[in-house]
Specification:
This protein is an alpha/beta fold. It has a single domain, classed as Protein tyrosine phosphatase superfamily (Protein-Tyrosine Phosphatase, Chain A, Alpha-Beta Complex). 29% of the residues lie in helices and 18% in strands. It contains four helices and five strands. It has a five-stranded mixed sheet. Helix 2 packs across helix 4. The longest helix is centred in the middle third of the chain and has 14 residues. The protein is globular and about 40 Å long. The protein starts with 6 loop residues before the first strand and ends with a helix. The N terminus is likely disordered.
Length: 160
């Protein structure tokens, strides 16, 4: 894996304040669709694949992949006649997926089309749920979708 192809957050030394305290995950990675197709991982990994409604999914490696969550929603923050809005059900699916895989995977890779908005919001919540630093996914090159982020934060608050 080339660090210029995927944004890698190495969090091996983070504190364990998440609600999945006994976890194996040490990295949360955000990728674009293009880089998700090139992604390779030598350790067990799980993937959250996000595409817009009607878009094809990227072909990704299955080597060392322990699970895959496929979601379809558009990068919008309010109802739109031609788009699918991120829902509370999607938020629950993401957190259930993390709970089911946090002891099996060492890496969680999240991708969307550009690797900027939907995936960074999901990655921030995944990191937070695991007691890792969410901050790297909330600024800089990222522009997290605020609806995705707020619904995931709300769901996390309910779990704690």
């Amino acid at each position: 894996m080339n660090k210029s192809d995927c944004v890698v957050r190495d969090v091996r030394h983070a504190n364990y304040q998440g609600f999945y305290r006994l976890r194996e995950v040490t990295e949360v990675i955000v990728c674009s669709r293009e880089h998700a197709e090139e992604f390779e991982c030598s350790v067990p990994w799980a993937c959250i694949s996000i595409v817009s409604l009607g878009d094809e999914r990227p072909e990704m490696s299955e080597e060392n992949r322990v699970d895959l969550l496929e979601l379809s929603f558009d990068d919008i923050t309010k109802e739109h006649p031609q788009g699918r809005l991120f829902s509370d059900s999607d938020a629950a699916d993401i957190l259930d997926f993390v709970a089911a895989n946090c002891r099996r995977a060492r890496v969680v890779m999240v991708h969307c089309e550009e690797g900027v908005s939907r995936s960074s919001a999901v990655a921030a919540a995944v990191a937070q749920s695991l007691g890792l630093d969410a901050e790297p996914f909330l600024g800089g090159d990222y522009d997290p979708n605020q609806r995705v982020l707020s619904l995931l934060w709300e769901r996390l608050a309910q779990v704690r």
